[in-house]
Amino acid sequence: MELDPVFVARLQFAFTIIFHIIFPTFTIGLSAYIATLCVMWMRTGRERYRLLAQFWTKIFAVSFALGVVSGVVLSYQFGTNWSRFSVVVGNVIGPMIGYEVLVAFFLEATFLGVMLFGWNRVPPWLHTLSAIAVAIGTALSAFWILSANSWMQTPAGYEMRDGIAYPVDWLAVVFNPSFPYRLAHMVTAAYLTVSFVVLAVGARYVLAGRHLEHGRTMVRMAVGFAAIVAPLQLFIGDQHGLNTLAHQPLKIAAIEAHWDGDAPGELVLFAWPDEATESNRFAVTIPHGASLLLTHSWDGLFPGLKSVPPRDRPPVAPPFFAFRAMVGIGMIMILAGLTGVLLWWRSRLFEARWYLWPAQHAWWMGFVAVISGWIVTETGRQPWVAYGVLRTAEAASPLAANTVATTLVLFVLVYGVVFAIGLYYINRLIARGPQDPTLEPRRSGGAPTPSSAPGGHKILVETERRVPSEHVV
Amino acid sequence: MESYLPVIWAAIIGLAVAMYVILDGFDLGIGILFPFAETDHERDQMMNSVAPFWDGNETWLVLGGAGMMVAFPLAYSIILPALYLPVIFMLLALIFRGVAFEFRWIGVTSKRHWSFAFVAGSTLAAFCQGLILGGLIQGIKVENGAFAGSAFDWATPFAILCGLALVAGYALLGATWLIMKTEGSVATRARIEAKLLLLVVLGFMAIVSIWTPFAFERIAVRWFSLPNILFFWWVPAATLLVAFAAWRWLETGHEVLPFLATIALFLLGYLGLLISNFPYLVPPSLTIWQTAAAPATHIFMLMGTLVMLPIILGYMIFVYWIFGGKLREGEGYH
Description:
The complex is a heterodimer of chains A (473) and B (334). Chain A starts with a helix and ends with a helix. Chain A has one domain (5-434). In chain A, α1 packs across α6 (179-208), α2 runs antiparallel to α3 and α6 (179-208) crosses α11. In chain A, the strands form three sheets. A two-stranded antiparallel ribbon of chain A has the order 1-2. Chain A has 14 helices and six strands. Chain A is mainly alpha-helical. Chain B has a two-stranded antiparallel ribbon. In chain B, strands 3-4 form a two-stranded antiparallel ribbon. Chain B is globular, with a radius of gyration of 20 Å. Chain B has one domain. Chain B has 13 helices and four strands. At the A-B interface, α2, α3, α13 and α14 of A face α3, α4, α5, β2 and α13 of B.
């Protein structure tokens, strides 16, 4: 079988970036949550906020490490696998990645050290400040990398000379047309994702009757956040979609599986888009639905896939299905947030097992929605790597297919092992729950460990011995 | 102005690479020295001495890569495909090294496995970085502005020599870091290791210094033609002097000076390589001017770099200061 080097390179990039995006999504949201907890600890002086911050910081450390190591790979893949891309658009897109490193990566990575290891070394205000620095770092990182990605979707502020893109107007490059929408949508998605992880963990403790106080705090914070932000995300997503219709109509056509631009768009609830026959099979549709949503008029027209020859069309099935997965999860999130707030208002939130039980298993929802969203936007951009500037097929490095295939296999193996173990360890940290290292035997919230037991006593002695030595330094 | 921009950018990327080599050098060195620790307790101590810093240290590698893409996209697009396998293996090795920092503390029963991952990841990453260096010095085949060689062009005895040299060099950095940051049996052993490694590193530096002018005529011309030799003779002389001082300080029980001397040794070696290869970024054919990005790109990025780099250095020094002083036996941050 003859392997297509571009196809293998795409597969490798898709694999490494899908793996990577899980962790920034989590750490963007989680760093903001930890910073919030630190601020609340400072303002109220309540120990439970400090304990929660400590607990989530440990989980943050593991996911941040996974994010860093998988992210370093990406910063080199532009050169190893996509060298033509770097040559053609490097002048324009390079600085955005450069700025990401300068303003975000160093800030996050350096202050993470204080956040993780500074509990006994720095005063609380400096600790809180470090947590805020990390949260700002992650958000700034999102700013620049999404600016770079948005430029690939909606290039602006450049001119082509001899097949190379040159910058003309940096403001137009950075704030390209789709950037504000994509930034708002992604950062909101990260915060929402984490709110559902926090909800799941809190619900797990409440149901198990362990760490009750902390569990309840987490559930309340998460539900309140989701009830406001999940509906907001629907609005942001809608605006983002309208922006895409203006700049990348074919992506919308693929999302809606809309073949014929001369007829009003049907809202396709389900179908099997068939690229060979240029039609949908097994379609369940609401007539005029898509026209109404996208053009706000009953008979509104928008371009169909057939408006361009097949070689200029994106693949239809990936954006079509991924979009439905993303929106479906978004709807469930809205429902879950509003239901939770309603239960809270009626003071039944912690008795409603029918609500908490599914909630404790819902931690993955945000991640799947985010990955689906990226599949929509990246496959919908095809066949271009930089829309209208450079085709994906012309962006790859001059490498043999089997070289790339070999490293792809290695990436799959290594990431598979590391990811599985990382997930297992995060789960173990969650199972262990928030605990105060200086008050080890008296497990907060849960059943008290008998301190008369030999084990408990020993821990106490060890703790007492350790505390002073930590304060000396 | 425009002809100076690539020089300024070469200096910035040169700085990023030097920062990376020194800072992550001692992290990786600790991984390389890990197998020679006798107890798990000692290994904990070694790892704890770098745990708060490694993330920030590795970020200089990202700056090097991203900076290269911004400032010299053509060089970036030639070097990385040419050194594809060493680069990918380095990245994979860094994955194991990085996650080992976290996983080793959580996995109680699997601690041994993560210690091994830490050793293997650190050593392989160091070796691959040496291969990359060697592969670059010995030259890359370029046609029509693209890499035109094959997947194993880099695999030469010279590149392997550079790989081994860097492993030894990082181990020396790690050993002198441990002398400075730890106490007890770890520090004592590190002092013995450092002496041995200093001799090995000097040996490697001597071999590379003799090998390169013989194998590559451009390097011989650069060093030994007049008047160049009058300008450059002090580099090997200073290297010998610093090495001698490092040895004395190791003997007399200094705690900080051996580390600083090792850094000086690295910088002198680095300077030697710069003298050998400047202004080529893709030896032997492409210079920094031929591979530079558009001036507008250089200027836009330079504005941010001039503002951010001092800030980054400032807060990095601050964090090193927070975690300054010796890590006492049994003290950990976890």
